[in-house]
Structure formats: structure tokens, C-alpha cells
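thought: user wants a sequence for this fold. calling inverse folding tool.
action: design(structure=
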């Protein structure tokens, strides 16, 4: 069941891929296996990986021992960096869900609630490093095909 917070698949690919390889091991991981294990289309996965490479978060290597790996220490990569690198939008200035012509958000109780929660999530993602999140990630609990 979808929740109130909807994350595009490209963002899910970016966040999960970085988390999957954030164990501190500097070896290259085979991209097809990661895409398959996480249940993503390889073509979509490859596009997102290239976006993360251009942003300086991932490195790629071709060949039989190639694949992807983090370009930086996971202790120095925040979830917000991954979000932004994958094309995440900055928080909008307009808070209300209505058209700004109808409600500028200055007195909107709903807008203030949404703004507060967006700010809280932004702060959490800014303070959460990939290494910190990886400590609580147990791959063995996933149902890998």
C-alpha cells in the first residue's frame, strides 16, 4: 500500500543502490546482480547509475571484474546528497497544496504542517550518512531471487 510520501523509482534505485554497496568494501560490484537483487529493470538501473557517476557518488569499471562502487567513503555521503544527485527537487517555497493564486501559504494550517514535515525530513536526510544507515541494513533479510 502506498504511503503519503511517494518516492519515484529512480530515487529508490539511487538510494537503495548506494546503501547496497555501502559496506566499506572498495571492490567493484556487478551491476546486473545488484539490479536483479533489488528488483529493478537493468536499463533504468543503468541510467540512474550513470547519473550518480556524473555526480561523483559512484565509480564504474568495465570488464569481467568491473561493476560499480562508491566513489567516496560512506561516512562522508549523506542521504540528501544521493537524493539531490538523483534529481531530487529542492523544497518548494510555496507550502499549500492549492494553486499559489488561491493560497499563498501564509495562513494555511495544512501548508505549515507540510512545510514542517518536509523540513524535518530534509534535516534527517542531511544528517544521515550512508555508513550510519548501512549499519542497520541486513541484506540477509531480503528475499533475493
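)
observation: tool returned 145 residues.
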Amino acid at each position: 500500500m502506498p504511503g503519503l510520501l511517494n518516492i519515484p523509482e529512480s530515487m529508490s534505485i539511487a538510494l537503495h543502490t548506494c546503501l547496497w554497496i555501502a559496506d566499506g568494501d572498495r571492490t567493484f560490484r556487478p551491476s546486473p546482480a545488484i539490479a536483479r537483487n533489488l528488483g529493478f529493470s537493468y536499463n533504468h538501473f543503468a541510467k540512474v547509475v550513470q547519473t550518480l557517476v556524473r555526480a561523483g557518488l559512484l565509480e564504474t569499471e568495465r570488464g569481467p571484474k568491473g561493476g560499480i562502487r562508491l566513489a567516496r567513503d560512506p561516512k562522508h555521503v549523506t542521504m540528501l546528497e544521493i537524493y539531490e544527485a538523483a534529481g531530487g527537487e529542492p523544497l518548494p517555497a510555496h507550502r499549500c497544496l492549492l494553486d499559489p493564486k488561491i493560497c499563498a501559504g501564509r495562513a494555511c494550517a495544512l501548508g505549515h504542517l507540510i512545510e514542517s514535515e518536509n523540513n524535518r525530513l530534509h534535516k534527517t536526510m542531511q544528517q544521515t550518512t550512508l555508513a550510519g544507515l548501512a549499519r542497520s541494513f541486513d541484506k540477509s533479510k531480503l528475499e533475493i531471487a
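thought: summarizing for user.
answer: Here is the designed sequence. The chain has a mean pLDDT of 86.
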